[in-house]
Design brief:
about 280 residues, alpha+beta, 7 helices
């Protein structure tokens, strides 16, 4: 009788069985959630320190412009003078109109500021002057301020010749196609550079000439004024160099008609006047 347990042949292949390795008892899987939380914390701290660095490295006039943007205020009348709206209201006229700039004007000012600073950043010679440009929406339009700083003045002391005329040419290229009329104002600080009224007026005229040469039509200019130190940008510190500036105002009004257009409009008006018989004059 044959045995039930047969011995395998010498050339038979061995049978290999694979078993999955089981996790030992008491060992938990690795938790990676704390790594995600730590990465978020590190990113937030990096952004915070970058913000502190930007604040510490920015010019004071730039910080003042940012603060003014987030805290809009109504223009106050001069001491001893009544506001225009108050006079109209006291005399029974229309109610005073709010002097706060509209949201549309603010949006236009922000877009124009980004465009100008982008153009400055693209030019290596103008890149250091990007912080010298401020835009402020106001009741009469958009104010473009090109200010002096302690390290980067726009004019030499006592001179009306711009040290960076390309900055004004860049602005002329951005505002030359806009329909707004333009007012140019020159300002000095309280330290005095001789006859501040004459100096501020000559600087305003010099900037007006650069804008005209840069493509701004002559009928776009509404006024060129020298303000001396009567309207400081920083009233609490009137001797600061930031008060020496050029202000280009994009007025909220259409450009004036050219002389030829005025004459043509006058002829059309005369032709449309009815005669004594009630017929239209030929």
């Amino acid at each position: 009788m044959a045995s039930r347990h047969l011995r395998p042949a010498a050339n038979a292949r061995p049978v290999i069985r694979r078993r999955a390795r089981q996790t030992p008892r008491g060992v938990r899987p690795v938790n990676v959630q704390w790594k995600v939380a730590y990465a978020d914390f590190a990113t937030a701290m990096m952004a915070f320190f970058m913000l502190l660095w930007l604040i510490s490295s920015s010019e004071k006039v730039s910080l003042q412009g940012i603060a003014d943007y987030f805290t809009p205020s109504v223009a106050a009348p001069a001491a001893g003078a009544a506001a225009e709206g108050d006079v109209a209201f006291a005399s029974g006229g229309p109610e005073p109109v709010s002097l706060a700039p509209s949201d549309k004007t603010r949006a236009r000012a922000e877009a124009l500021l980004r465009d100008i600073r982008t153009a400055f950043a693209a030019d290596p010679d103008l890149a250091p002057l990007a912080d010298n440009v401020l835009l402020e929406p106001a009741a009469d339009g958009i104010h473009i301020q090109l200010t002096d700083t302690a390290l980067r003045p726009m004019f030499a002391e006592g001179s009306a010749v711009p040290l960076a005329p390309d900055a004004f040419r860049t602005i002329a290229a951005r505002i030359g196609t806009l329909p707004n009329r333009i007012a140019v104002e020159g300002h000095t600080d309280s330290a005095g550079e001789g006859d501040d009224w004459q100096l501020s007026a000559r600087r305003a005229v010099a900037v007006r000439d650069i804008l005209a040469a840069g493509g701004v039509p002559a009928d776009r200019f509404a006024a060129v004024t020298g303000r001396a130190a009567s309207l400081p940008l920083l009233p609490d510190t009137p001797a600061r160099p930031e008060n020496r500036r050029i202000t280009i105002i994009l007025l909220d009004e259409p450009p004036a008609l050219a002389p030829g257009a005025v004459a043509s409009a006058g002829r059309r008006a005369v032709q449309a006047m009815p005669s004594q018989t009630g017929n239209i004059a030929p």
